[in-house]
Amino acid sequence: MTEHAVVERSPWHGAADATELDHWRAVAQAAAEHLGADAWERDRANEQPFAELEHLRGTGLVNLLVPAEHGGAGAHWQTAFEAVRILARTDGSIAQLLAYHYINQATIVFYAEPADQGPWWRRSAEGQWVWGDSVNPVDPTLELTPDGDGYRLNGLKRFSTGSSVGDVIIINATVRGGDQDGAVLAFVVEREREGLELLDDWDFLGQRLSASGSVRYHDVRVDPADVLGEIEDEDAFSTLVTPAIQLAFGNFYLGVAQGALARGRELVLARPRSWFLSAAPTYAEDHLVQRTVGELVARTAAVEALADVLNAEFDAVLGLGGQVTAEQRAALAIKVAGLKVVSTEVGVDVANRIYEVTGSSSARSGVGLDLFWRNVRTHSLHDPVDYKKLEVGAHFLLGQVQPISLYT
């Protein structure tokens, strides 16, 4: 790799301007309204979200981060994170799919050599690929066995978000045998690849349409052309993939909180009277209701302010490319961990406590308020938030930084 290529590395530079942000906010809002019209009914039906992803393709959101020279919108990560947040206000499952798609698609940059990235981008843009994943790092059961000039893939991988509906799946697996024994490779296969078995076993409380079931691999052929590259755990630039993942989570939880507040407001305003012990004529005019709502709105606004700062900061650090240092990467990761803490707690709390002001009628099946709590409660268990608190605390007290992983 040339010195210029090492320094460059990132195709994303500068910051999102008002024109870019306003345009894609409007696009995402229109998509959110479309999805929100029947989000609860689709959640109950629990069918694979092929139609929903087809709608996203039509909006252009799928190619949002693809560099313009390769056929995409050439937008920034701040814009992408906001799009995820906006979709999460009405449909958490599809917001998760879009968030993971952005991260998975970006592995083109994080793992492939700069000279090889263009063809990957162009194929993805032209096919409007949605990228699923099969990389769960706490379920390391996949093995690549050398076979001729390629490999054979075997094993089971759970929590493979988007795998059952995406056009392609990004996979991480360890090579066993041969000259690359022990190396962890990132590679891409199409969903219909022979030997790939989609188990369709995702049956959880929330995020029901996130297509996060297990995938079993039976001697799946992996050719050299499928390989993006080797995963290097200590490379400051490529490991920015983890702060990106966690930042997407923070925006997702924020969006769910905002959606729960918006739906709660509708329900409160629709209540014609007030509690019989209240002196107020309606629930919306009851000071106790106003106090609870005011607290939840203020806390959500604080999370939004932090997320907005970090979304822009991520673009700035990513734009450094090969010049980003381990110290810069660590500083960003700690800030994002802080967002993970507060967005998780506020998201879960808002989605829960909004019931205190909407009343018993809002718990009726069909109202749909439960969707927000079920979604944020389910996804917030992705990795324990207490360990994020430890990261932030250890860094504040001792300057310690956690070892780099797909979680830190």
What does this protein structure show overall?
This protein is α+β, with helices and mostly antiparallel strands and 408 residues long. It folds into three domains: 3-130, Acyl-CoA dehydrogenase/oxidase, N-terminal domain (Butyryl-Coa Dehydrogenase, subunit A, domain 1, Orthogonal Bundle); 143-230, Butyryl-CoA Dehydrogenase, subunit A, domain 2 (Beta Barrel); 238-398, Up-down Bundle (Butyryl-CoA Dehydrogenase, subunit A, domain 3), CATH 1.20.140. The chain is built from 13 helices and eight strands. It has helices at 3-8, 18-36, 39-45, 50-59, 77-88, 92-111, 114-127, 241-270, 287-318, 326-353, 355-358, 370-379, 385-398, and strands at 131-134, 143-147, 150-157, 168-175, 184-190, 196-198, 215-222, 227-230. Strands 1, 2, 3, 4, 5, 6, 7 and 8 form an eight-stranded mixed β-sheet that branches. A hairpin with a 2-residue loop joins strand 2 and strand 3. Helix 8 (241-270) packs parallel to helix 10 and helix 8 runs antiparallel to helix 12. The chain is globular and about 80 Å long.
